[in-house]
Design goal:
22% helix, seven-stranded mixed sheet, alpha+beta, 5 helices
Protein backbone atom coordinates (compact mmCIF):
# COMPACT_ATOMS: atom_id res chain seq x y z
CA UNK A 1 0.00 0.00 0.00
CA UNK A 2 1.44 3.37 -1.05
CA UNK A 3 2.22 5.84 1.67
CA UNK A 4 0.23 9.04 1.80
CA UNK A 5 2.13 12.03 0.48
CA UNK A 6 2.14 15.09 2.71
CA UNK A 7 2.49 18.59 1.28
CA UNK A 8 2.33 21.97 2.95
CA UNK A 9 4.33 24.88 4.29
CA UNK A 10 7.71 23.86 5.67
CA UNK A 11 8.02 25.05 9.26
CA UNK A 12 11.55 26.34 8.71
CA UNK A 13 12.05 27.65 5.16
CA UNK A 14 8.40 28.64 4.69
CA UNK A 15 8.12 27.14 1.18
CA UNK A 16 5.23 24.99 0.00
CA UNK A 17 6.75 21.55 -0.62
CA UNK A 18 6.44 17.86 -0.01
CA UNK A 19 6.85 17.39 3.74
CA UNK A 20 8.90 14.74 5.49
CA UNK A 21 8.49 13.22 8.94
CA UNK A 22 10.39 15.15 11.60
CA UNK A 23 11.03 13.15 14.76
CA UNK A 24 10.54 15.11 17.99
CA UNK A 25 13.04 14.47 19.52
CA UNK A 26 15.44 13.00 16.90
CA UNK A 27 15.03 9.31 16.19
CA UNK A 28 18.51 8.50 17.53
CA UNK A 29 17.67 10.13 20.88
CA UNK A 30 15.42 7.40 22.33
CA UNK A 31 12.64 8.11 19.81
CA UNK A 32 12.52 5.17 17.43
CA UNK A 33 9.79 3.10 19.09
CA UNK A 34 6.02 3.23 18.71
CA UNK A 35 4.36 5.65 21.14
CA UNK A 36 0.89 6.82 21.97
CA UNK A 37 -0.33 10.04 23.57
CA UNK A 38 -3.75 11.00 24.88
CA UNK A 39 -4.89 14.59 24.62
CA UNK A 40 -5.68 16.97 27.46
CA UNK A 41 -9.23 17.21 26.11
CA UNK A 42 -9.73 13.46 26.37
CA UNK A 43 -8.41 13.35 29.91
CA UNK A 44 -10.55 16.27 31.08
CA UNK A 45 -13.69 15.15 29.27
CA UNK A 46 -13.67 11.53 30.38
CA UNK A 47 -16.38 10.67 32.87
CA UNK A 48 -14.61 7.81 34.60
CA UNK A 49 -14.62 8.49 38.34
CA UNK A 50 -11.36 8.86 40.26
CA UNK A 51 -9.13 8.58 37.19
CA UNK A 52 -5.48 9.23 38.05
CA UNK A 53 -3.84 11.91 35.87
CA UNK A 54 -1.56 9.30 34.28
CA UNK A 55 -4.32 6.71 33.74
CA UNK A 56 -4.94 6.78 29.99
CA UNK A 57 -6.50 3.32 29.75
CA UNK A 58 -9.60 3.44 27.57
CA UNK A 59 -8.96 6.99 26.33
CA UNK A 60 -8.63 7.90 22.69
CA UNK A 61 -5.02 8.51 21.76
CA UNK A 62 -2.78 9.45 18.86
CA UNK A 63 -0.57 6.60 17.69
CA UNK A 64 2.97 7.40 16.56
CA UNK A 65 4.15 4.34 14.64
CA UNK A 66 7.75 5.46 14.18
CA UNK A 67 8.39 7.59 17.24
CA UNK A 68 6.80 10.93 18.05
CA UNK A 69 6.90 13.55 15.32
CA UNK A 70 5.00 15.28 12.55
CA UNK A 71 5.14 15.94 8.80
CA UNK A 72 6.35 19.52 9.13
CA UNK A 73 9.72 19.93 7.34
CA UNK A 74 10.65 19.71 3.69
CA UNK A 75 13.34 17.21 2.77
CA UNK A 76 16.01 19.88 2.39
CA UNK A 77 15.43 21.43 5.83
CA UNK A 78 15.05 18.05 7.50
CA UNK A 79 18.32 16.83 5.98
CA UNK A 80 20.18 20.05 6.79
CA UNK A 81 19.17 20.22 10.45
CA UNK A 82 19.72 16.50 10.91
CA UNK A 83 23.21 16.63 9.44
CA UNK A 84 24.28 19.83 11.17
CA UNK A 85 22.61 19.49 14.58
CA UNK A 86 21.15 16.03 15.09
CA UNK A 87 24.40 14.29 15.98
CA UNK A 88 25.39 16.77 18.68
CA UNK A 89 21.92 16.57 20.18
CA UNK A 90 21.75 12.78 20.19
CA UNK A 91 25.24 12.38 21.67
CA UNK A 92 24.43 14.73 24.55
CA UNK A 93 21.03 13.19 25.24
CA UNK A 94 22.33 9.62 25.13
CA UNK A 95 25.06 10.56 27.61
CA UNK A 96 22.42 11.94 29.98
CA UNK A 97 20.07 9.01 29.44
CA UNK A 98 22.81 6.49 30.16
CA UNK A 99 23.33 8.05 33.58
CA UNK A 100 19.63 8.33 34.39
CA UNK A 101 18.81 4.68 33.71
CA UNK A 102 21.29 3.73 36.42
CA UNK A 103 19.04 5.46 38.96
CA UNK A 104 15.87 3.66 40.18
CA UNK A 105 12.76 5.56 39.11
CA UNK A 106 11.73 6.18 42.71
CA UNK A 107 15.06 7.93 43.33
CA UNK A 108 14.87 10.29 40.35
CA UNK A 109 14.43 13.45 42.38
CA UNK A 110 16.15 16.77 43.06
CA UNK A 111 18.85 17.35 40.43
CA UNK A 112 21.91 15.77 38.87
CA UNK A 113 25.28 17.24 37.97
CA UNK A 114 26.72 16.37 34.57
CA UNK A 115 30.15 16.83 33.06
CA UNK A 116 30.06 16.45 29.29
CA UNK A 117 33.16 16.90 27.15
CA UNK A 118 33.62 18.00 23.56
CA UNK A 119 30.06 18.96 22.74
CA UNK A 120 28.93 21.40 20.07
CA UNK A 121 26.62 23.50 22.22
CA UNK A 122 25.29 25.71 19.41
CA UNK A 123 24.40 22.65 17.32
CA UNK A 124 22.65 21.09 20.29
CA UNK A 125 20.68 24.28 20.92
CA UNK A 126 19.66 24.64 17.27
CA UNK A 127 18.29 21.11 17.26
CA UNK A 128 16.13 22.01 20.26
CA UNK A 129 14.84 25.13 18.46
CA UNK A 130 14.08 23.13 15.31
CA UNK A 131 11.98 20.72 17.40
CA UNK A 132 9.85 23.60 18.66
CA UNK A 133 9.52 24.90 15.10
CA UNK A 134 8.06 21.55 14.06
CA UNK A 135 5.71 21.41 17.03
CA UNK A 136 4.32 24.91 16.57
CA UNK A 137 2.90 26.97 13.68
CA UNK A 138 4.61 27.76 10.38
CA UNK A 139 4.65 31.43 11.38
CA UNK A 140 6.60 30.65 14.53
CA UNK A 141 8.96 28.24 12.82
CA UNK A 142 9.87 30.41 9.86
CA UNK A 143 10.84 33.27 12.20
CA UNK A 144 13.94 31.17 12.97
CA UNK A 145 14.75 30.43 9.32
CA UNK A 146 18.02 32.37 9.21
CA UNK A 147 19.13 31.11 12.61
CA UNK A 148 18.58 27.47 11.67
CA UNK A 149 19.63 27.38 8.01
CA UNK A 150 23.01 29.01 8.69
CA UNK A 151 24.90 26.88 11.19
CA UNK A 152 27.12 29.81 12.19
CA UNK A 153 24.26 32.25 12.81
CA UNK A 154 23.93 33.30 16.48
CA UNK A 155 21.15 35.86 16.02
CA UNK A 156 18.82 34.37 18.60
CA UNK A 157 16.94 37.04 20.57
CA UNK A 158 17.89 36.24 24.16
CA UNK A 159 15.86 39.21 25.40
CA UNK A 160 12.67 37.80 23.90
CA UNK A 161 13.15 34.05 24.37
CA UNK A 162 14.41 31.73 27.08
CA UNK A 163 14.94 27.97 26.72
CA UNK A 164 15.22 25.73 29.78
CA UNK A 165 15.98 22.02 30.15
CA UNK A 166 15.03 19.52 32.83
CA UNK A 167 15.33 15.78 33.46
CA UNK A 168 12.13 13.94 32.63
CA UNK A 169 10.63 11.95 35.50
CA UNK A 170 7.09 10.65 35.80
CA UNK A 171 4.79 8.65 33.54
CA UNK A 172 3.65 10.97 30.74
CA UNK A 173 5.33 12.38 27.62
CA UNK A 174 4.39 15.90 26.57
CA UNK A 175 4.23 17.83 23.31
CA UNK A 176 2.62 21.16 24.20
CA UNK A 177 2.36 23.89 21.51
CA UNK A 178 2.56 27.52 22.60
CA UNK A 179 -0.14 28.53 25.02
CA UNK A 180 -0.81 31.14 27.69
CA UNK A 181 -1.22 29.89 31.22
CA UNK A 182 -1.81 31.50 34.59
CA UNK A 183 0.70 30.46 37.22
CA UNK A 184 -1.49 30.06 40.30
CA UNK A 185 1.55 30.26 42.58
CA UNK A 186 2.75 33.64 41.31
CA UNK A 187 -0.38 35.07 39.70
CA UNK A 188 1.62 35.74 36.51
CA UNK A 189 0.78 34.74 32.94
CA UNK A 190 3.27 32.44 31.23
CA UNK A 191 3.50 31.99 27.46
CA UNK A 192 5.43 28.86 26.60
CA UNK A 193 5.76 25.63 24.65
CA UNK A 194 7.00 22.36 26.14
CA UNK A 195 8.53 19.13 24.81
CA UNK A 196 9.18 16.34 27.30
CA UNK A 197 10.13 12.73 26.64
CA UNK A 198 12.71 10.50 28.30
CA UNK A 199 15.31 11.53 29.31
CA UNK A 200 14.83 15.33 29.09
CA UNK A 201 12.23 18.02 28.77
CA UNK A 202 12.52 21.51 27.28
CA UNK A 203 10.47 24.65 27.88
CA UNK A 204 10.56 27.48 25.34
CA UNK A 205 9.43 30.72 26.98
CA UNK A 206 8.31 33.80 25.04
CA UNK A 207 9.39 36.58 27.39
CA UNK A 208 7.50 39.26 25.46
CA UNK A 209 4.27 37.71 26.80
CA UNK A 210 5.63 36.58 30.17
CA UNK A 211 5.53 38.48 33.41
CA UNK A 212 7.11 35.78 35.49
CA UNK A 213 10.68 35.92 36.78
CA UNK A 214 10.70 32.29 37.89
CA UNK A 215 11.39 29.57 35.35
CA UNK A 216 11.40 25.79 35.51
CA UNK A 217 14.57 23.89 34.62
CA UNK A 218 18.14 24.90 33.83
CA UNK A 219 18.57 27.87 31.49
CA UNK A 220 20.42 26.85 28.31
CA UNK A 221 19.69 30.01 26.29
CA UNK A 222 23.35 31.03 26.40
CA UNK A 223 24.18 28.02 24.19
CA UNK A 224 22.72 30.07 21.32
CA UNK A 225 25.73 32.40 21.43
CA UNK A 226 28.41 29.70 21.20
CA UNK A 227 30.66 29.12 18.19
CA UNK A 228 29.35 26.38 15.91
CA UNK A 229 32.67 24.74 15.15
CA UNK A 230 33.97 24.82 18.73
CA UNK A 231 33.80 21.87 21.08
CA UNK A 232 32.98 22.72 24.69
CA UNK A 233 33.35 20.99 28.03
CA UNK A 234 30.17 21.53 30.01
CA UNK A 235 29.39 21.27 33.71
CA UNK A 236 25.68 21.64 34.34
CA UNK A 237 23.15 20.88 37.06
CA UNK A 238 19.74 19.80 35.77
CA UNK A 239 16.69 19.23 38.00
CA UNK A 240 14.32 16.29 37.80
CA UNK A 241 10.72 17.38 37.18
CA UNK A 242 7.82 14.92 37.24
CA UNK A 243 5.45 14.74 34.28
CA UNK A 244 2.39 12.82 35.43
CA UNK A 245 -0.22 14.65 33.36
CA UNK A 246 -0.32 15.97 29.78
CA UNK A 247 -0.79 19.53 31.11
CA UNK A 248 2.12 21.87 30.41
CA UNK A 249 4.20 23.08 33.35
CA UNK A 250 2.39 20.65 35.63
CA UNK A 251 5.08 19.00 37.74
CA UNK A 252 2.97 17.77 40.62
CA UNK A 253 3.99 14.55 42.30
CA UNK A 254 1.37 11.84 42.83
Amino acid sequence: MARQEHTGICHICGEYKKLTYEHIPPEAAFNSQRRKMSTVEELMGNEKDNRAPWDIEGLKYKQFQQGTGFFTLCGECNSFTGAKYGGAYSDFIKAIGTEIVKIPKENRKQELSFHVERIKLLAFFKQVVSMFCSLNTEQFGTSFKDFLLDENNTNFDTNKYKVCMYLHAGRIDRLVPFQAQLNINTGNMEFYSEISTFPVGFIFYDLSHNRTTSFYGSDITSFSQCDYSSLYNLDIQIPFLECNTPFGLDFRKF
